[in-house]
Automatic annotation (TrEMBL):
Sequence similarity: Belongs to the binding-protein-dependent transport system permease family. HisMQ subfamily.
InterPro entries: AA_ABC_transptr_permease_3TM, ArtM/GltK/GlnP/TcyL/YhdX-like, MetI-like, MetI-like_sf
GO MF annotations in UniProt: transmembrane transporter activity
Subcellular location per the Swiss-Prot or TrEMBL entry: Cell inner membrane; Cell membrane
Top-level division of the source organism's lineage: Bacteria
Example GO BP: amino acid transport
Listed PANTHER family: AMINO-ACID ABC TRANSPORTER PERMEASE PROTEIN YHDX-RELATED, MEMBRANE COMPONENT OF AMINO ACID ABC TRANSPORTER
Name listed for the protein in its UniProt record: Amino acid ABC transporter membrane protein 1, PAAT family
Organism in which the protein naturally occurs: Vibrio hangzhouensis
This protein's GO CC annotations: ATP-binding cassette (ABC) transporter complex
Amino acid sequence: MKPTTTQVAPQSKSAKSANLLYNPTFRSVVFQVIAVFALGLFFYTIVDNALSNLAARGIATGFDFLDQEAGFGIGLTLIEYDETFSYGRTFYVGLLNTALVSILGIVLATVLGFVIGIARLSSNWLVSRFAAVYIEIFRNIPLLLQIFFWYFAVLQALPSARQSMSLGEAIFLNVRGLYFPAPVFGEGSNVVIGAFIFGVIATIIVKIWANNKQKLTGQQTPMVRIGLGLVVGLPLVAYLVMGMPISAEYPVLKGFNFRGGISIIPELAALTLALSIYTASFIAEIVRSGINAVNHGQTEAAMSLGLPRSRTLKLVVIPQAMRIIIPPLTSQYLNLTKNSSLAMAIGYPDLVSVFAGTTLNQVGQAIEIIAMTMGVYLTLSLVTSALMNLYNKKVALVER
């Protein structure tokens, strides 16, 4: 007896279309495409209306202004610049000044925040109370007021150039800034610089090897002595062998100000101090909470093996706490970078002051200038987030 076969009638086109419309994946794609199209149309309409209004008022648009001569000076420049350079050059000067204060602030705030956060957990009552007072004071005072404090109440109260506070005959501090010797590179200095770079790279490689060795055998490598030998000793040997090709240019008082050497303007110092101290108060609480989140049994187990408190903190507690610390720490780095735009209040020549301030007032092309400024801060934030996410992924707990 032959088995019976059931034939399924082919679906009509209308039935297939109805099934496709009820498909969640298909509908989600369609709705997203519609949303993106509507959003693009919305922004296109806004930009088109703005450009039409600007054209009706006779206001130029486009980025041709970047090639025009700026005609104004900037107090701090990390690249060559004078009044004859273009507005495009002012953009790069402001960008580098913003990056400078952001990087300095992040480094100082991280170091200070970790120190204060660990001190907050100290068994010494005085150290713990001092850290708590620091946190409660600086995180509850507005950042702008702290910038004003360091600039007007501290740095502007320093003596004039002729009555400078000095350390020997090399370092001078006055109301105009901090002055110290600048290195002068002569013939053969490239060898010394190359030795230093090689020492840094070699130290990193040895550190990676030492970490892998410790994981496999439990033996530790004296990285402090090896690092000092490679980073300090090797360049010093190269410096002596090449006949000491690097000299120093000392600042000298000429007229009403110092000439030569390296100078740190008070605006940079005040802004860096305020950003670092303010952000460090938040980082300290993040570090404290991260350390407290580590199971206390880990500390007891390490101490039962004879590890002192300092090594227990370094080798056991901090590595585990970093998994909790990094995500909120990233947010503080982003906040510090964006808060650097308050530099305009004291005249520090950052991107907002130089480009979105002076340049905008002279050329009047607000859309292009503000869009470029916003793009810079967005890029800096995305790069910072990407780097911190990579580090977070590296220290994350790997499931077996």
